[in-house]
Prior knowledge:
Blueprint: E1 6-11, E2 20-26, E3 29-34, H1 48-52, E4 67-69, E5 87-89, H2 92-110, E6 115-118, H3 125-137, E7 144-145, H4 148-151, H5 153-162, E8 180-184, H6 188-191, H7 193-204, E9 209-213, E10 226-228, H8 235-248, H9 254-260, E11 261-262, H10 264-270, H11 276-283, H12 287-298, E12 303-307, H13 309-312, H14 317-331, E13 340-343, H15 350-355, E14 362-363, E15 367-368, H16 372-381, H17 397-402, E16 411-415, H18 419-422, H19 426-434, E17 438-443, E18 455-458, E19 467-470, E20 475-479, H20 492-507, H21 519-527, E21 546-547, E22 571-572, E23 591-596, H22 613-616, E24 621-624, H23 626-631, E25 639-643, E26 648-655, E27 663-667, E28 695-701
Parallel strand pairs: 6-7, 6-16, 8-9, 8-12, 9-10, 11-22, 12-13, 16-17, 17-18, 23-27, 24-26
Antiparallel strand pairs: 1-2, 2-3, 4-5, 4-18, 14-15, 19-20, 20-21, 23-28, 24-27, 25-26, 25-28
Helix pairs in contact: 2-20, 3-20, 3-21, 5-14, 8-11, 8-12, 8-14, 11-12
Bound molecules: iron/sulfur cluster.
Amino acid sequence: MIKADRVVSTTCPYCGVGCNLQLHVKDDYIFKVTSPFDAVVNQGNLCVKGRFGYDYIYHPKRVTKPLLRKTTQKPGERTQAFDRDEWREVSWDEALDYVADRLVEIYRRDGSDAMSVYCCAKATNEDNYLLQKMFRALFRTNNVDHCTRLCHAGSVVALQQALGSSAMSNTASEVIHNDVMMIVGSNTSENHPIIALQMKEAVSKYGAKMIVVDPRRIDLVDFADLWLPLKPGTNVPLLTAMAHVIVKEGLVNYEFIKNRTEGYEDFVESLEKFTPEYAEEISGVPADDIRAAARLYANAKNGAIYWGMGISQLSHGTASALALIHLAFLTGHVGREGTGLNPLRGQNNVQGASDMGSMPFHYPGYMRVDDEANAAKWEAAWNVEPGGLSRELGLTTTEILSHAHPGGVRALYIMGENPMMSEPNLNETRKHMGQLEFLVAQDLFINESGAFADVFLPATPFAEKDGTFTNTDRRVQRVRQAHAPRGNSRADWEIICDLARRIESRLGLATAKWTYSGPEEIFAEMASVVPDFAGITYERIAKTGLQYPVWDKNHPGTPFLFSETFPRGRGKFTSLDYVPVVEQVDDEYPFILTTGRVLEHWHGGTMTRNSDLDALYPEARVEIHPADAEIHGILDGMAVKVTSRRGEIVVRATVTEKTTVGVVFLSWHFAEAAANLLTIDALDPQAKIPEFKACAVQVFPARKEDLPNPDVVVARGRY
Ligand code: SF4
């Protein structure tokens, strides 16, 4: 048996559950990952990604030296370079001087609006805090965003509007205190596997009732009392019909309404047309099932709602999330242990990146950038002259790229994200990327977006740096270095500080401070301004982390929120209308495509497709219902072409009752058959989140030779 030189306690780099990992290290290699039974988040359980998905750290394709493109890239002629021969290895000094020169040149010529940055939901709080600080304090722009825009932006806007706080209200493990839970638009077993385990335990051991609202027959349906298989994009009528039933049948918690909410009367008026029969007509869910779900949730002692991107990734994602929030307000199922409103955040640190101000409308701590007092606080903290920070709302991820043209955005700095996989309508995204004047990629691998870059800055993965991640239930946890960075790669925060110093000296600005002894000092700077983190120190979170808000050094953290009041005061009802998805099916494109993730992979695949996890699930599959497959002459395992008005891919079909009639499902991890070539770039007007969950497609048999890798087949499945 191998004996470890050391065992390092850290936090999983994949999903928002935030499981504790023990990295067993021998000769500067991790050879095993375990987790202790007393781990507060995961009690020793890990999914396949956390347990085995660390080998990408040692993949030969990982870039560990700074690279410059050999051929100068020009707007309109920018090309992708995956081959190392198209790049030149350079020193850090050469790479960072070049980046500083080009960014400053563009800023001086075209001003703040030409500058933009994608922060990263996989990087630490400290990395994200510094990157948004660099663009705000030096380039005076709020064109700062990250992939929260693509996952829960609808939830964030709705929660801010209705409550004044967008975080998950309760602790995930409180699920065992629920007597009724609603799981809405979340394939929890594949996306948050350890929370799904706790949900199953709540049902099988503690007798909780589960309601699943999802167009797919996901794994949790086996544990549910009720499954409402709605047509994608019909959340608002279905959930508002539940509100209608709760009001009409007198199941309302009137005391909660009186003491804690506003806008109830107008809201009740707006419910009139949302009868269960009306909702059945639109959603396809039987009216009696809608009634049964409403009664079950409303009559619960501790009802809780957990939701995923089936709610938010719609052109009316904000309205969808509001429809859920209304149910909690009507019944008072919020503000107590074991209840609540719980958007399950996707990536390991999407909560933290948002908290750190990696968004175009907010500084760290969700302080609006257009609020004078907030701006003044950050000007003082960053040594920026009064009035120096921009008060203009910035562009979102989706808007940054569509503004890439002369007179618009000219420079983009991407830390760890992959818009060439994660944006909708990738053929259009490709055109926008090509229009950039200067592009920097800071990452581990040359992915589909980094391949467009002028400069590649090699960063370190989670196991080679220190810092913190914040999980889906607001727990700030330590990330610890297990071994030194490979090659010449450097931690993101170190790269940012080094670059910022060079930019600052070129601009002749007073220093915003870019010299830190380490991530602990960076965190302390942020916490000195953001009250939610005032009581968090590295010492206090050494073992189990703390759930913010933590108001002072003696505060124990906050497992659940809103016990007395909401941050905005009263919870606000908003009257809703049913707005259909933008693209309706027709004879030419008769299926609704909905997209999501599978257990073995993560996002655009930069990590998992460079891991042995890829061998477990090596190809994209489209799921189609047996009834649809028969009509279209499609057999299980057959090559099929999936087309939309925007693009086409060839994949193998999985014929399964996991999907419903008229709905097909694709995961979006596979560059060679990218689901986002098909998706539509329609946006929610408030949250600017794209409609990933519904567009119209056609599916028909193709030739096996047209598959991107005809000999690669998923060897097993869970269908
Ligand atoms: S459930 Fe999420 S955090 Fe836990 S091991 Fe799996 S991917 Fe990591």
